[in-house]
Amino acid sequence: MLLIESKYLDSHYCAGKTIFDKMLNSVGFNVSSTLLDAGSGNGCYSTAISKIVGDKGKVVSIDINSDNLFSFKRTNEISTGFSIQANLISIPMKENTVDGVWCSNVFQYLTENEKIQVLNEFKRIVKPGGKIAIKEVDLSTTMLGPSPRIFWHIVLKAMSSRQINSSLNMFNVLKYSRMLNIQRISYKTYILEWTSPIESKVFRYLHNLSGTIKEIFRQIPLSEEETFYLENYIQVRENSDYVVSEDFYWREGYILILLQNE
């Protein structure tokens, strides 16, 4: 399962909804404004944004994946918005069209040059004074316990993968925003953490996430011992030793970078 698939996005948002909604509400988007949900996926945040802007506002949802947009149209009822299939590198909207942008978990898939291009597109379509909020995973906060040393050996080897490396370079967004004369307002990391016993919605998310992590790890060269561990222990299952352990602990963080167009 890919991290951009509707099934994963649903489980991800449901598991962390309290924190994710807190992040969104902290931005300070205004009622009756027009906002862009950039990389909207299946529309979890578009629905939440529509509640902020109200009946007189508008939500524009853009995603490159047509399947996600289909799922969004089928399961969400947002009467004051519309969706577009497009690449964020070239957004099909006129200058100064929206009052703000919400962009969640997109930048981890971008090269450094693409990050600059997307930021430049946000600057072009956002009205002067409008806010640009970028939410992304903060891998420096990740912790799984109890976990053997071999797990962290594999994680270190995986650091060279494009997606993980891009996530680790998120602070470059601050540098790129200065280059483009986009003002930085703030950046803050929010923490999600779970201990045993875990709720069913959290188990569903961790099962989906760990399965995807397993696929990422399969792409890197591993020793026999590491391969055995990967195939038999990485994915979270109901009977996994570390899930049923009373010491089970999972922590992950998300950084919110808040910018303002000049």
Q: Can you describe this structure in just a few lines?
A:
43% of the residues lie in helices and 27% in strands. The protein has 262 residues and is α/β, with parallel strands linked by helices.
Description of the molecule:
The N and C termini lie far apart (40 Å). This protein has a seven-stranded mixed β-sheet with strand order 3-2-1-4-5-7-6, sandwiched between helices. The longest helix is centred in the N-terminal third of the chain and has 21 residues. It has ten helices and seven strands. It has a single domain, classed as Rossmann fold (3-Layer(aba) Sandwich), CATH 3.40.50. It is globular. With 262 residues, it is α/β, with parallel strands linked by helices. Helix 2 links the parallel strand 1 and strand 2.
Class from secondary-structure proportions: alpha/beta
Principal-axis shape: globular
Q: Whole-number average pLDDT? A: 86
Number of domains: 1
Please give the share of residues in helix.
40-55%
- Low-pLDDT parts are none
What characterizes the major β-sheet?
7 strands, mixed
- Order of helices and strands, N to C? HEHEHEEHEHHHEHHHE
CATH architecture call: 3-Layer(aba) Sandwich
Number of strands: 7
Q: Please report the distance between the alpha carbons of the first and last residues.
A: 40 Å
Enter the CATH topology name: Rossmann fold
**Strand fraction:** 25-35%
Helix count, per DSSP? 10
Strand order of the largest sheet: 3-2-1-4-5-7-6
In angstroms, what is the radius of gyration? 19 Å
State the CATH class.
Alpha Beta
Task: Name the CATH homologous superfamily.
Answer: Vaccinia Virus protein VP39
